[in-house]
Each structure stands twice: as C-alpha cells, then as structure tokens.
Amino acid sequence: MSGRFAAEWLSLREPADRRARSARLVAEVRRWSRGRDALNVVDLGAGTGANLRFLAPRLPVPQHWTLIDHDAALLARVHLPDPGPTVRRVCIDLQQWRDVLAKSGPPDLVTAAALLDLAGAAWVDGLVQGCRELGAAALFALSYDGRLHGSPPDPDDRAVRRAVNAHQQRDKGLGPALGPDAAAYAAARFRSAGFHVLTAQSPWDLGNDSEQLAGALIRGWMAAACEQVPADRDRYRAWAQRRERDVGSGRVRLRVGHLDLLALPPVAA
C-alpha cells in the first residue's frame, strides 16, 4: 500500500476509531498521569498522528511525543492539535524502536493504535521487556480481536471471517502476526512482567452512516479472503457485493471487534 493510499485509509478510519476507543482506559491514563510535571510519550506506528490527536488533549500535563513509523510519507502528513505537545518524528523500522530513545530520553508512556494485531509474539515480548526495563506504562488501542459480525447475518459471513482471521496471522513485517490473539497475548505477557493490566472492548459499529469506511473494509476483507483461499474467490466476491449493497441500503450494520489494553508498571518499593 502506497503512502497516499495508506493515508487515505487512516483518514477514513479515524472518526470510527475515536468513537470506539475505551473512555474507561483513557480515564485511567489521566489518573495515572496527574501530578507529573510532564509526560514523555513514544507512539509506535504513528502513521499520520491520529493516536496523538486523540490522546494528547485528554492528558492533563505537558507532553513531548516521539512519533515512530517506517513510512516517511505518513509522518510527513502528521498534523497536530492546537495547542499541542512538542513532537519529534522518527522514520525507522519498528524493530528498532528503542534505538531512538537515547536522544528523546526514556518514555513514561509507550502507545500505539491498531498495531498489536500486526505484530508477532517475539516483537510483543520485546515490547513488554522494553517497557519493564524503562519503567514505562503502555496503552495499545484498537487491536483487532477476530470478531466480524453482520446484523442480520449473511450465510457466508463465517467463511469470510475464518479466511480473514487466518490471513491476519501472516507476517506483516514484525514476525508472523498474532492477529486476533494479539491483545490477549500482550495482556498475559504484561501481567507476567508485574504490570497492572486493564482491557476493554472498543468495537466499530458501522452502517450506512459510515458507508465509505464500511465499503473499504468489506473490499479489504474480500481481498484478504481471496488471497488466503483462492479457490473460493468467486464466493467471496459475491459476498462483498451483497454486503456493500446491504450496508448502503441501511439494512445491515457491521460490528468489528477490537480490544484496548492499558498496562501500568509496577510501583517501585
């Protein structure tokens, strides 16, 4: 996906992401951050800055953000809230995210949105270890959890979901992806490292009020399903045509499951 098309997708999904994110976990982060002079925040897979635009205005202290992404074209499109935090943009592979900290200093908070489900177990293990060694909290929002539901259902919804979820576990650049299991895996690893962990559902609820996003999502699912099970591509294409028509008519709503995760570091004795 080119930078331009990736930026268009990120822009399309940003309003749905904002509606879906867990207010309870954001309130917990606010409570945790109160009383601090400032926050040093590292945003992994920052893209065009949607996570910063959502979270920074909701934190009650001055902030410095380091935005890390492998795509310079996306970082170039970052626009900031006004007034906003100070920001540093770093284009680097996410495997090397800790390499940039010598200049910015250790983070108080490591965060990302829509990233964990693209990562493999080894990368998540390294993330947890890094947060533990740095004494940083972690907030990871909107990790896909494998739930795709249409209401009312279509006979082929289940087959598409099965193919999409299998496709989600392909290597996306951070090792064989955990896909729908990512948030649960990360939560277990953070707990084992002594963190206080909270999770909350953050599903998308899409209908003809979100027709453009829903259509793009349906076409993306179809493409993933066709790639995963090429023998059934005609079935998946017919399903996509029906589902786009259903959503556009207002007859169907789609629910896409996500999980938000907050991990607060152990309190020093």
TrEMBL record:
SUPFAM superfamilies: S-adenosyl-L-methionine-dependent methyltransferases (SSF53335). The keyword Methyltransferase applies. One of its GO terms (molecular function) is methyltransferase activity. GO terms for biological process: methylation. Keywords: Methyltransferase, Transferase. This is Trans-aconitate methyltransferase.
